[in-house]
Amino acid sequence: MRNATIRAVNGLTARWAADVGRGTVFSAAGVWPLLAFLADGAGGAARRELAEAVGLPADAAAAAAREVLAATGALRGLDAALGLWTRRTLEPREAWRAGLPAGTHGVLTGDAEADRAALDAWAARRTGGLVERMPVRVGPDAELVLASALALRTRWLRPFEEVPWEPYGGPWHARTLLTLRRTSVLLDRVGVADTPHGHVTELKVLGDNALDVHLLLGEEGMAPGRVLAAGVDLLARRHPVVSGPRLPHGDAGPGLRVVRERDTRPAPPTLEVTAVAFGVTAEHDLLDRHELFGLTTAVREDPAGHFPGVSAFPLRVGSARQSAVARFGARGFEAAAVTAVCAVGGAAPPPLRYLTTVVEAVFDRPFGFLALHRHTRLVLAAGWVTDPEPFREDEDD
Predict the structure, then answer these.
(1) What is the pLDDT along the chain (397 residues), one digit of tens a residue?
(2) Cα–Cα 20 to 30 A to 145, which of 31, 57, 62, 122?
(3) CB neighbours of 261 closer than 8 A, spacing ≥ 6?
(4) What residues pair up with 324 in beta bridges, in sequence order?
């Protein structure tokens, strides 16, 4: 995979992280190929905005998206897929459809229940059940759905030991957490970066298939988005880092302390890690940040539509969403994301003459993580942890 493409995907990760303020998980690598294919088929202002969001010229976007899907799909422990569904009455332009991976084109029947079941089954199958439903609702006005699925699983080269632990202070004080501990002589797995917004401690947890997770702890009061963006910058070596073997004695960085201890026999320096298990799920409405994803113009009603390269039928973006999940435990890590864009007719929709009842259930009641491919440094998932897993008595057994 070309470095320019990796920089473009990771750049979207850093920009998306800017507004993170609570526990979440997201995958720019799941969104980016969709935006790239849309840019390839867009026209006018929508084309310019999508190309800016993708970080590549629109003419080069589709080829780069195919490159990302092919490269990620070939990695051990990682499954990547693209799906396209259109109404029988909508004919995609052959040049655009041919640019998608083979075997991706399905049909929307117009039967909302049947279409929903088929799309949900695709999402569950492509993520191994981690994401059970397609994040967009397919209504009677849906003309086209373009979706991606990304699922990754890795087992640690060295597992952690699970223990109960109550932090002495901070927001998790007095909670008994499912805590992960291990000791290693590999001090270079940890380091402290000096960034413009504060120091960040980075711990690398290596998987057995070159899929790793980097845990990131910033200084107290440092914004989550800046911590995650610093983690992306570290992949590009943009900030100086003091690695474990060179850390000074005493308080060496956020959450880091170097001490001398007595032992009964000669022993090499060791790294003792205490982390917490976590599971995070999130739903993202990409249109809430339409400017980030280059969708500002693409959602507007226009009789001519915004995607002349996709179809002669006028189209606009009606919805764009992502469902994501991540789980970090003693033996490994798994994460998945399904992202979908639903396109509807470009003309104004029929007037809304009827009232209906919508029940909205809102459950809205602090380190970051990046899951990445070790060799290319492509970030596959990122997130922020505010509610770690509690320790349950049966886990002690």
Answers:
(1) 789 999 999 999 999 999 898 899 999 999 999 999 999 999 999 999 999 999 999 999 999 999 999 999 899 999 999 999 999 889 999 999 988 988 889 999 988 899 999 999 999 999 999 999 999 988 888 999 999 999 999 999 999 999 998 888 888 887 898 999 998 888 899 999 999 999 999 999 999 999 999 999 999 999 999 999 999 999 999 999 999 888 888 888 898 888 877 766 777 888 889 999 999 999 999 999 999 999 999 999 988 899 999 999 999 999 999 999 999 999 999 999 999 999 988 655 555 555 443 323 222 227 889 999 999 999 999 999 888 888 776 654 4
(2) 57
(3) none
(4) 282, 337
In the chain, where the domains are located = 3-153+280-345, 155-277+388-396
Q: Which CATH number fits domain 3-153+280-345: 3.90.110.10, 2.60.120.380, 3.30.497.10, 3.90.740.10?
A: 3.30.497.10
Dist CA 286 CA 151 (whole Å) = 20
Q: Kindly tell me the sign of the dihedral angle through the C-alpha atoms of 236, 159, 80, 340.
A: negative
Q: What DSSP string describes 109-163?
A: -S-HHHHHHHHHHHHHHHTTTSS-S-SS---TTEEEEEEEEEEEEEEBSSPPEEE
Vertex 249, ends 330 and 212: CA angle to 5°? 30
* DSSP H stretches of helix in the chain: 3-17, 28-41, 44-54, 58-73, 94-98, 112-126, 224-235
Query: Which tokens go with 16?
Result: 């998306």
Q: What pTM does this model have?
A: 0.90
Task: Report the 10 Å Cβ neighbour count for 310.
Answer: 27
The enclosing H or E element of 58 equals helix 58-73
Pick the CATH number of 155-277+388-396 from 2.30.39, 2.40.50, 1.10.260, 3.30.2320: 2.30.39
- Two tokens at 99? 């640019």
| Alpha-carbon gap, residue 339 to 148, rounded angstroms | 5
Joined together, the tokens standing for residue 150 give 């990304």
